[in-house]
Hints:
Blueprint: H1 2-14, H2 32-67, H3 69-75, E1 97-106, E2 119-123, E3 127-132, E4 135-145, E5 153-158, H4 162-165, H5 168-171, E6 174-180, E7 183-187, E8 194-200
Antiparallel strand pairs: 1-2, 1-8, 2-3, 3-4, 4-5, 5-6, 6-7, 7-8
Helix pairs in contact: 2-3
Amino acid sequence: MVRTDFFKKAMTATSPNSACPTQRLPAAPLSLKEKTHVMQTTLRSTALLTLFLVALWSCKKTEQNEIGPALDEFNNLPANKYHPTDILQGKPFDLYGNWRVIGSSGGIHGGGYGMDFDYLLIKPNAMFGIVRNGELVTTGKIEVVNDPDFDLLIHLVSDKPAGEVNAQIMHDNEKFVGMRSDTMSLYSPCCDRYDTHFKKL
């Protein structure tokens, strides 16, 4: 009988309803192998993050070196210079970025025209810049033309007269956009006009 009472008291003392708080056993220390694994995982994650940041910085630096001071000049223009909001938001193509001219096509003979500028810079809100020989020769705004025959038809409206800019794309500034991967083409809607092709930096 004494033994039974003893066990009842012992069970009561360790039950969840007991007044005495249940004590948790301390966590077992990590083994050397586990510590090594945690350290390797942390180092690997840190290394990947560092590589990503270096690559991102290198891309920006490469664009700066390639385009020159004209890129800073263009980026310093206020976003609301032409449009208070982003009129290209929600459109089927992402035009924003720095684009290198890689060729042209079209015209009566189909061979395009001699490339007369080097880069087309586009940033929010629908602003563009034309760079030739390291100089920002003009800036302007992009206007969207609502035409059901095209996914995206635009006008490139330059701040300077087309004759002063001396770039074919400013003389014939109505274009519809075609894009594949990192290449973009600005096509003329019809009639033996010129098209210009770009690669994104």
